[in-house]
């Protein structure tokens, strides 16, 4: 018998889970309403579901099969009741579910709401704080009403008197603006203006409705200001971007202009053609040096028995080729440019910037290389040497004769002037001046000759 009861109980529990469970609150149906798709939902769950899932309140999707459902003209309450489920509940004695609030954890208080986002069952006193603060930085919380019983639903507050432990707060003292219990009313607030808590709550309800209108007006103003701020921000960003583009374009243009001026200076510096000429001259000098090295090597390897007319003729031809090479190299003059660049400066003059790139100077320098006398053959230049010695001897003889003659003239002049000084007293002054001048010239000539 006990086994039969256990089996029957299991069947009833499976029946509750499969047929009598609301797809939204996951609890047993409370006033189930049947949808056109033949699925059933609690009336309160359906009201909350339509309010949160439908922007227009006229069309929503079935929470079980996701098919579109149109709300009747009279509203959600016009969906027909599911009498079949009601009959089953009556037959098996279905009892309502009373959940404990997951926030305050009071076992005597019914959880009447469920937050889908946080997966919490919340009582009617904790739901307000949860709505205002727990989802302040998120989208609107998805909260549904899941009230399944009437335990604690008629309570207006869960607070108790702080002075008298366990006493419920049923009165409101307008004089002190606090909630009081009946004991406080009879003791400390006897002469104060008081009213029942229900009347105070109804008055607060009207005040909250007025506050709703005020907050709505503020919301409209805030939305307007937010639109203006967004437009201003967009305008500022656009103007800033346009200005940045203009600045960058101007900077690129100035950079190109400065680069062009720099390239012009560089082209002026590198336009000098002295480097290729020097490279050509260096190549000729290298060839001349090789010829000299070859001659040195030839002369160093000569022996006493190698002297002959053929050797002399060969060496004369070598000397001739070396002399011809030297003629093209000796006294070679090159003109090159020595560039000098003085960087400019950037000066500020109010809002303007005065920029001077710099100055370029090309100083032309002239330099001569290898100032050697032309080479002459040993035997070919012998007669020139003899003629040069004879000319030198002849020049020396002429020079000595000229000096002797000039000396004789000066001596005769001095003697003549001395005689005039003695014999012509009338011209003494002029004669003395002439004598002094001739004497001075004679002494200077003698000193110059001795020094030479």
List keywords for this structure.
452 residues, alpha+beta, Herpes Virus-1, three-stranded antiparallel beta sheet, 53% helix, elongated, transmembrane helix
The percentage helix is 40-55%
Describe the largest sheet.
3 strands, antiparallel
Based on the structure, what is the oligomeric state of the protein chains? single chain
Instruction: State the separation between the terminal residues, measured CA to CA.
Output: 165 Å
Average pLDDT, all residues: 76
Strand arrangement, major sheet = 6-5-7
Number of strands: 14
Q: How many helices does DSSP assign?
A: 10
Sketch the topology as an H/E string, one letter per element.
Answer: HEEHEEHEEHEEEHEHHHEEEEHH
Question: Care to describe what's here?
Answer:
With 452 residues, the chain is an alpha+beta fold. Among the domains are: 8-103 and 116-145, Zinc/RING finger domain, C3HC4 (zinc finger) (Herpes Virus-1, 2-Layer Sandwich); 276-375, no CATH class. The protein has 10 helices and 14 strands. The protein has helices at 2-18, 43-53, 83-92, 127-134, 182-187, 197-270, 274-300, 309-327, 382-423, 428-451, and strands at residues 32-34, 40-42, 59-61, 68-70, 111-115, 120-123, 143-145, 171-173, 178-180, 194-196, 332-343, 346-349, 352-355, 358-369. Strands 6-5-7 form a 3-stranded antiparallel beta sheet. A hairpin with a 6-residue loop joins β3 (59-61) and β4. The longest helix is centred in the middle third of the chain and has 74 residues, at 197-270. The protein is elongated and about 180 Å long. The termini are far apart. One of its GO terms (molecular function) is zinc ion binding. InterPro entries: TRIM45/56/19-like, Znf-RING_euk, Znf_B-box, Znf_RING, Znf_RING/FYVE/PHD, Znf_RING_CS. This is E3 ubiquitin-protein ligase TRIM56. Residues 22-66 form the RING-type domain. Pfam families: zf-B_box (PF00643), zf-RING_UBOX (PF13445).
């Amino acid at each position: 018998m006990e086994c039969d009861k256990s089996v029957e109980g299991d069947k009833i529990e499976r029946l509750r889970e499969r047929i009598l469970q609301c797809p939204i609150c996951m609890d047993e149906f409370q006033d189930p309403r049947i949808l056109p798709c033949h699925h059933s939902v609690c009336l309160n769950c359906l009201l909350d579901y339509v309010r949160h899932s439908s922007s227009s309140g006229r069309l929503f999707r079935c929470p079980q099969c996701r098919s579109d459902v149109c709300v009747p003209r009279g509203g959600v309450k016009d969906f027909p009741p599911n009498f079949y489920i009601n009959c089953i509940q009556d037959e098996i004695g279905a009892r309502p579910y009373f959940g404990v609030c997951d926030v305050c954890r009071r076992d005597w208080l019914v959880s009447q709401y469920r937050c889908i986002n946080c997966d919490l069952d919340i009582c009617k006193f904790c739901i307000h704080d949860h709505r205002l603060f727990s989802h302040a930085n998120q989208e609107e919380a998805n909260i549904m009403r899941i009230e399944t019983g009437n335990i604690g639903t008629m309570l207006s507050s869960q607070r108790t008197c702080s002075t008298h432990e366990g006493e419920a707060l049923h009165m409101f003292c307008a004089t002190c603006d606090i909630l009081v219990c009946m004991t406080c009313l009879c003791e400390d607030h006897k002469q104060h203006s008081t009213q029942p808590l229900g009347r105070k709550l109804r008055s607060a309800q009207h005040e909250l409705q007025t506050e709703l209108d005020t907050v709505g007006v503020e919301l409209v103003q805030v939305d307007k200001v937010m639109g203006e701020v967004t437009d201003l921000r967009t305008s500022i960003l656009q103007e800033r971007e346009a200005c940045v583009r203009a600045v960058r374009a101007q900077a690129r243009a100035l950079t190109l202009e400065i680069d062009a001026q720099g390239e012009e200076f560089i082209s002026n510096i590198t336009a000098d053609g002295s480097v290729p000429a020097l490279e050509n001259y260096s190549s000729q000098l290298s060839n001349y040096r090789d010829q000299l090295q070859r001659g040195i090597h030839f002369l160093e390897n000569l022996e006493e028995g190698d002297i002959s007319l053929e050797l002399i003729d060969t060496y004369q031809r070598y000397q001739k080729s070396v002399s011809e090479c030297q003629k093209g190299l000796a006294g070679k003059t090159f003109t090159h440019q020595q560039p000098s660049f003085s960087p400019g400066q950037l000066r500020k003059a109010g809002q303007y910037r005065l920029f001077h790139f710099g100055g370029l100077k090309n100083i032309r320098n002239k330099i001569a290389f290898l100032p050697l006398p032309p080479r002459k053959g040993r035997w070919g230049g012998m007669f020139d040497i003899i003629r040069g010695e004879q000319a030198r001897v002849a020049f020396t003889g002429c020079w000595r004769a000229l000096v002797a003659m000039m000396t004789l003239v000066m001596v005769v002049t001095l003697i003549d002037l001395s005689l005039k000084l003695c014999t012509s007293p009338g011209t003494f002054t002029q004669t003395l001046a002439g004598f002094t001048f001739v004497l001075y010239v004679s002494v200077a000539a003698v000193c110059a000759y001795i020094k030479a």
